[in-house]
Amino acid sequence: MKKEVFKYLKEYSTDTTTINRLIVSAFIEINKLEITNCSLIKNHVISDLDDLEIKYITDFVAIFKKNSLQFNFEDLIELFEFVISPADKIINGTVYTPKFIRDYIVNETLKSINNHIDKALYADLSCGCGAFLFTIAVRIHEQTGIPYTSIFNRIYGLDITEYSIERTKILLALLALTNGEDPPEFTFNLFCGNALEFDLTNVSPVVKNNGGFDVIVGNPPYVCSRNMDSNSIRLLEKWSVTKSGHPDLYIPFFQVGFENLSANGVLGYITVNTFLKSINGRALRQYFADHQISLKIISFGGEQIFKDRNTYTCLCFLHKKAGGISYKLSISTELNNLKDNDFYFYEYKLLNNLDGWNLADSIKIHEYIQRLEATGISFKDKYITRNGIATLKNDIYKFIPSEVADKDCYLMEKNGKEYKIEKKICRDIINANKIKTEEDLYTKREKIIYPYYQINGLTNLIDEVEFQKEYPYAYKYLYVHKRELGKRDKGNQEYENWYAYGRRQSLDLRSLKLFFPHICERPTFIISEDKELLFYNGIAIISNNIEELEIAKKILESDIFFNYIRLTTKDYSSGFISMSKNYIKNFGIIELSESEKNKLLAGKNSDALLNSLYKLNGSLPF
């Protein structure tokens, strides 16, 4: 819809009832609906008695007419989603699901119950403003001709916010009204509650006698652990799939949904695809395997389905029957062209639930990944890797010194002010994500205030009294920023002292390093022989054996490794890949004889030799 519509709503009001009345009134006027009996909708229509509200509705409708805009049901759904408060969107993970995605999910699930669509029970456990329930109702009506008043008896919705339930009722009521159904009251099975504790199967004898729902669809909330409210964090403990890592809120919705399905039920979700490989997805992967759940996955890879939302998603269909995983990588425009033989099938016993599922949709890709992971020693067992230091406030600790300096102090400029910093409390540091050449190791160095010392191989924080005495300039500078440093970890973390780094990782790192980036289009690997050099961002293989790092560099710069990581990494848009340890840890590092090491190190183009050593015979997976 036009930006003017969204802008008007944003400026109009934050009161949900007031906004609902404006939107409903505009929808009725533009679509020329006649409402005679339905009290729900009549209560949301702005009357002639309120001159100010009449002016607002007139101005709002004028925007549509000026821009020749329609106001159909999809527009209504999008507006209802748009006016959810930003705070609620973060905490509750609400996001608008495009119509073509809802249509596909609903159509696929209905195929599974084609013979009893009119008798089945349907649910959305995080229904938001009711978009999925709307799509289900439309599809049932189209295929059976059953009145909406009867269809509403068979669909159930649950959401954590009362205003979303109210908007779902409005949406469904308007759907019926546009089809000539105008009773004084509609009966809805819509409930406000948290799906992590709400017992939907007991809200109705019909659902209980059915053993649950025949179809569950939806778009579970996308909320990371740091944005969850305390009640949701507490409720996560009830669910076995949340026992690994820091689970996102969408993860337990798989278990909640599966356990609310009837004996032959089917579930269709669009969700974030991180559970396929993430640490916090381990328990969910194990849950799928333990129950031998028949699971169909369509991954969209690096394509972003949701507007203004940086998420990478997949469609998941779960059947309440034993099976394995059918997988396909696709783009959204090809959804309706997919056929059963486009999917590659996996038995759970062939997958690694702990480390993650490396799923492919062809035997050639699957065998390529398997061969590389079965060769030599796994990356995680061969190399020691480290992430960079984590001050959690790099902009305070690190700096580029001014050219003006004396023999004891650097001169630093921050926010228009100049500070002296003692040289002895500083160390060299580099952003490993930005190193492309060996020259960058020197030209892109910065300084960082390092309030630590080492004794007997242990890294210790400098005592505050000693800090203030020995390094008065650095201490004074950090003290100026003490309040800002206290905001790290939302102010909830207790540190060794207020000037300590946020984490202790890599503080004692004194070794040779092979640097590579976290996220890139194609990784570069740069060796640093400066054992004292610190780094932030990126990753480093550490060793005191220069030959080991040189061999690692040759292998990891090869097309073999690049093809592997492209196939197993987390999805990003624009062809970017993640080099996180979780995605490269199972890559096999070939064991080499001395003569093979010499050949590899001496050769300028190592791919031919590595293809032979990995026994790939020059074959590529794509």
Task: Give an overview in words.
The model has no long low-confidence stretch (mean pLDDT 91). It is built from 26 helices and 25 strands. It folds into four domains: 1-71, no CATH class; 78-361, Rossmann fold (3-Layer(aba) Sandwich), CATH 3.40.50; 372-386 and 510-622, no CATH class; 389-504, no CATH class. The strands form seven sheets. It has a nine-stranded mixed beta sheet, sandwiched between helices. Helix 10 (162-177) links the parallel strand 2 and strand 3 (189-192). The chain is α/β, with parallel strands linked by helices and 622 residues long. Helix 5 packs antiparallel against helix 10 (162-177), helix 8 (131-144) runs parallel beside helix 10 (162-177) and helix 19 (464-470) packs across helix 20. The two termini are 40 Å apart. Helices cover 36% and strands 18% of the residues. The relative contact order is 0.07.
Annotate the secondary structure layout.
Elements: H1 3-12, H2 16-30, H3 39-42, H4 51-66, H5 73-82, H6 86-92, H7 99-111, E1 122-124, H8 131-144, H9 148-151, E2 155-159, H10 162-177, E3 189-192, H11 205-210, E4 213-218, H12 230-236, H13 250-259, E5 261-272, H14 282-290, E6 293-299, E7 313-322, E8 325-329, E9 344-346, H15 363-374, E10 377-378, H16 379-382, E11 384-387, H17 394-397, E12 398-399, E13 409-414, E14 417-422, E15 426-431, H18 440-443, E16 446-449, E17 452-455, E18 458-461, H19 464-470, H20 472-480, H21 482-485, E19 512-516, E20 519-520, E21 526-528, E22 534-536, E23 539-543, H22 546-556, H23 559-568, E24 577-578, H24 581-584, E25 588-589, H25 594-602, H26 607-613
Parallel strand pairs: 1-2, 1-4, 2-3, 4-5, 6-8, 15-22
Antiparallel strand pairs: 5-7, 6-7, 8-9, 10-25, 11-23, 12-16, 13-14, 15-16, 17-18, 19-21, 19-23, 20-24
Helix pairs in contact: 1-4, 2-4, 5-10, 7-8, 8-10, 19-20
